[in-house]
Amino acid sequence: MHSQKAPLATLLFLFAALALHIAPPAQSQPAFPSKPVRLVVPYPAGGSSDVLARALAHELTATWKQPVVVENIGGAGSIIGSERVAGAAPDGYTLLFTIDPTVVANRFLYKKLPYDPDKSLAPIAMIARSGQFIVVHPSFPANNLRELVDIARRAPGKVAYSSYGVGAHPHLLFETIAKREGLQFLHVPYKGIAPSTAALVAGEVQISVGSPAATGAMVKAGRLRAIAITSAARAGRFPDVQTSTEGGFPYVKAIIWFGMFAPGGADPKLIDRINHDVTTIARRPDFTEKHLDALSLELVANTPAEFAAAIRADVESIGEMIKAAGVQPE
């Protein structure tokens, strides 16, 4: 009897051991997200990127049933906050919401970036984009780009433009015009978009560049005058402002975009999941009207692959503008 029971006991033991080994994989992984998500904005609070990030975070909190907390980590042209995200675990719980210089212009402006713009950050979705206004002080006599170029040609080095630093949109745009048209502008850099715009309003300079989100209210109030917009189509809330192409300068381009990234190495399935949820929110008519139309932003809400392709195209065009402006990396 003993010899017959031994194999049975051994089989029962083996079945029990096998069940223990099988059980853990059968348990499903916790659904994303199962804890709060941090959305880093690498700029100070109050700017367009911060406002849009907070609007998305509010909606994602409702969709995901987990808090999505916006954290502003500004400084060094978005480098500090972007580096923080690039070094985070690629599990979706730390995301980046930023504008184009982070992965486009910064690679040309700094000799050593603490993150790789092509590998350290994984594109999730470009949410929206906008052309930039070429704005002038109300006392400046140019009413369009052609008149601006003619005035600058007659007064070399006398027409001053404000910017928020070397390599910023105003610097690249006006130096590209200068090189293409054989002109010379006077570059006056300031320490941010707000002081750059304030200098134009005060008449310290004659011209500058700013998005409709940043300068639109001043244009409406008559404190600035927009003589062109650097996008393919006119801005919906400013239908009288012609595009740079309509003005005869198709090479004058300065598009700002807003996009979301994960740390490099994130699972493509996770990126697709986040992309689906974010773009679904962005495409909702109520969200578009309240948060994009109000800032004269064009809805994009593209796929990760389309976003990556757009970044590559931007790198090529900005690289040409950097060369035209004679910018050397610091």
Compact description:
This protein has helices spanning about 1-25, 50-65, 80-85, 105-110, 145-155, 170-180, 195-200, 210-220, 270-285, 285-290, 305-325, and strands at about 35-40, 70, 95-100, 120-130, 135, 160-165, 185-190, 205-210, 225-230, 255-265, 300. The protein has about 325 residues and is an alpha/beta fold. Mean pLDDT is about 90; it is low at about 20-25.
What can you tell me about this protein's structure?
The protein has 330 residues and is α/β, with parallel strands linked by helices. It has two domains: 37-129 and 256-325, 3-Layer(aba) Sandwich (D-Maltodextrin-Binding Protein, domain 2); 133-229, 3-Layer(aba) Sandwich (D-Maltodextrin-Binding Protein, domain 2), CATH 3.40.190. Helix content is 43%, strand content 17%. The chain contains eleven helices and eleven strands. It has helices at 2-26, 48-64, 79-86, 106-109, 145-154, 169-181, 193-202, 212-220, 268-283, 285-292, 304-325; strands spanning 37-41, 68-72, 94-99, 121-130, 133-136, 160-163, 186-189, 207-210, 225-229, 256-263, 298-299. The strands form three sheets. Strands 2-1-3-10-4-11 form a six-stranded mixed β-sheet, sandwiched between helices. A three-stranded antiparallel β-sheet has the order 8-5-9, with helices on both faces. Helix 2 crosses helix 9 and helix 6 (169-181) packs across helix 11 (304-325). It is globular and about 70 Å long.
Total number of helices: 11
Mean pLDDT, all residues: 90
How far apart are the termini?
87 Å
CATH topology of the largest domain: D-Maltodextrin-Binding Protein, domain 2
Which CATH class of the largest domain? Answer: Alpha Beta
Radius of gyration from the alpha-carbon trace, in angstroms: 26 Å
SS elements, strand count: 11
Spatial strand sequence of the major β-sheet: 2-1-3-10-4-11
